């Protein structure tokens, strides 16, 4: 048995706890490291450029999330399809998919980034920016937006690398970029005095280095999955592109919704604030809280991403029980991680928040400390939702995955934001978050409890037929 055959054999036969640990550890490290890009930037900006610069960076988040969404559309969809094709030992189709993923990434980036640069001013005003923080936001965006294609290529092919059996190498690529970002941030912000512009250049240079590392992997013909040498494989295959998008649509929509929710939150802060200063503090506080929450959320996303190739491969191999058991273990781990985040927000909030501001006892720290405890009140249940979204996506059930992604951000959070702030003011905005988390978590549990018995019955009575559907790109009911 060759080394590559051994990798695929382990996906189908190795003990699940050990297998999940093997795949989740590097993806967790990679995902947490990815979150550190944001956190490190905010910490150094807060310490080096002040609270207004921090608010300026926070107001750019809807645009950044919007751009990330297209990277997830291609990367997540391609990773799932690659897992299934490798599960059926269809190497040629997997290579053609790899080529088409590049074409999609280029198409989306040229179109979307051009529009963002063209309409940047009206977009920032729409998001709730004012004359105090807009200069900081534009200074940051004019650097990172043109370079977004590098970020998307890095994300997309990192996910594909992990799905093709190289989780540790995917982890190294993320570590490489994050460590470099941590080194360059203080040099550019403090050493060169570039302020928020320095954070932007540190991020771009770090992503370029990581992207070169990732892409070089797929140019190596010795690897399981690599770029084809035949130019015919680079002709756009719209059927294959649609197959990628159909799976990637769930995380794409989730990220777009995150962007829209961020806009609504910022606009709500501006509307309910009693002054421009309070609005800017609220926006900066929201950015800090998101950074803290994202550290734990990205850990949970990493576990779920580590779960994905195991679930996807065993689905393709017709071993649905292994897929279900993997989900259960991943969900338990994610709830435990979220509980740690909840405990930190409850018992040591000020210690965490002070890292983001050079005014250790200023208004921003006081306000953010109070809001953090409210926002993360029911944080543990998020672990169930994050795992369930990825589980349905890995099963090829993009519709259910997308619906579950929307429950917290649209079905529950938006109504809460329309109701509670009307009689609670800005505090009502923070209260809306844990209420929406709880309702979305309950919905996730109910959907999974409904789905698992149906999958088991289907595979018990029609194992061959169910497996054949999976290999054709269909989902078992």
TrEMBL record:
GO molecular function: antiporter activity; xenobiotic transmembrane transporter activity
Domain of life: Bacteria
Cellular compartment(s): Cell membrane
Record key words, sorted: Antibiotic resistance, Cell membrane, Membrane, Transmembrane, Transmembrane helix, Transport
Keyword Transmembrane helix: yes
Membrane protein topology class: Multi-pass membrane protein
Gene Ontology CC entries for this record: plasma membrane
GO biological process: response to antibiotic
Transmembrane segments: 20-39, 59-80, 101-120, 172-194, 200-219, 240-261, 329-352, 372-391, 403-423, 429-450
Entry keyword 4Fe-4S: no
InterPro entries in the cross-refs: MATE_fam, MATE_MepA-like, MATE_MepA_subfamily, MdtK-like
UniProt similarity note: Belongs to the multi antimicrobial extrusion (MATE) (TC 2.A.66.1) family. MepA subfamily.
Protein's UniProt name: Multidrug export protein MepA
Native source organism of the sequence: Porphyromonas endodontalis (strain ATCC 35406 / DSM 24491 / JCM 8526 / CCUG 16442 / BCRC 14492 / NCTC 13058 / HG 370) (Bacteroides endodontalis)
Source organism phylogeny: Bacteria, Pseudomonadati, Bacteroidota, Bacteroidia, Bacteroidales
